Amino acid sequence: MRRHGIEEGRGGFVEGAWYIIADGARVGKRPVTVERFGTRIVLFRDERGALVAARARCPHRGADLGLGRVVDGAIECPYHGFRFASDGRCVAIPCEGRGATGRGVAEVLALTRYEVREHRGFVWLFWGERPDELPPVPWFEGLPADERHAHTASTDWDVPFARAMEGMLDLHHAPFAHRPWVPGMGALLDPYDVRVEGDVIHAMGVLRDDDGAPWDGRRGWKFEMEVRFPGALRLSFGKLVVGVVGCAPIDAGRTAIVGRYYMPVPAIGRLLARLGLLMEFWLIQPEDERMLASSEPRDADLEACRFVRADAGILAWHKMRRARLKAQREGEPQGEPRRLPVEAG
Ligand code: FES
Ligand SMILES: [Fe+2]
């Protein structure tokens, strides 16, 4: 199927992967509905505090379960009070009285659930058919052991997922797209090295002045990046700033971004991380979003671009995406929708 410039299947969402879909701190006692992969997903906590992710559409008549409440670890629909346990089974139908959920009713009315984990304060959702063995939730090398000196924030971009990822992997836009915030940053990306290991992309680059001399190992602004395909990445800038970004499609045209800064500085690290991330979200990211939203065609299209050496990381990502989407299309039974989520029970 060709929908947004690049060949895509089912909205172009890469399946069989963990995505960071939200900041875990957003899910407290109340349920929260987020839209991801063109689907409304409700997140809530069971009686032990473990996260549950399920289709937000109530199986009864479709109300948004995120508007409801959690009672004894079960989610209660705000419309007619049907309740659903953390394993998805319907456990109460108030209008039908006690015992109404017996005789298979619990299963017929069951919620569609998704595999979800909370890891290092992020909500990770496994999108796609559940394999017999789930891959481990990814994480990154070289990060502090905890989130004491970290701050996390979220935003949405009016940009398709593949374009958003192009923006994340792009190093050489900074001296132009972010000119006011990086005065004196050189435009030459040299050295620049991209390495692919399985579904991890490592990139290292130095932005410096083009003075005709080889790099002396010191001058310039050094970036390092580790991308866990498809949408999670660690970005280090110099020695002090380390960030993690999680991107997930909201739908075919928009992307949810969860960002975190670590500033391992005693006492004021968290405050610095907060200030840094505020600046990033208020001043810098809107410039990225503006550039990407202005780009034509609106979604990524490899044929419509003329890539240069400094785009190697972006190309590596597109290569992975293309291979994964192709495999998805080939594994797809003709004319029959594939079961995406994990069923209850
Ligand atoms: S729509 Fe949810 S209980 Fe009726
Ligand atoms: Fe940027």
Describe this entry's structure for a reader:
The chain is of the alpha+beta class. It folds into two domains: 27-127, 3-layer Sandwich (Rieske Iron-sulfur Protein), CATH 2.102.10.10; 150-328, Naphthalene 1,2-dioxygenase Alpha Subunit, Chain A, domain 1 (Alpha-Beta Complex). The chain is 18% helix and 32% strand. It is built from five helices and 19 strands. The strands form four sheets. The protein has a seven-stranded antiparallel sheet with strand order 13-19-18-17-16-15-14. Strand 4 (32-36) and strand 5 (39-45) form a beta hairpin. The longest helix is centred in the last third of the chain and has 26 residues, at 269-294. Mean pLDDT is 91; it is low at 1-9 and 334-345. Fe (ii) ion binds at residues 173-174, 177-178, 284, 288. FE2/S2 (inorganic) cluster binds at residues 58, 60-63, 77, 79-80, 82.
Q: What are the SSEs and their pairings?
A:
Elements: E1 2-4, E2 6-7, E3 17-23, E4 32-36, E5 39-45, E6 51-55, E7 69-71, E8 74-76, E9 83-84, E10 90-92, H1 105-108, E11 113-119, E12 122-127, E13 150-157, H2 161-169, H3 174-177, E14 188-197, E15 200-208, E16 221-228, E17 232-237, E18 241-249, E19 255-262, H4 269-294, H5 312-330
Antiparallel strand pairs: 1-2, 3-12, 4-5, 5-6, 6-11, 7-8, 8-9, 9-10, 11-12, 13-19, 14-15, 15-16, 16-17, 17-18, 18-19
Helix pairs in contact: 2-5
The chain binds FE2/S2 (inorganic) cluster and fe (ii) ion.
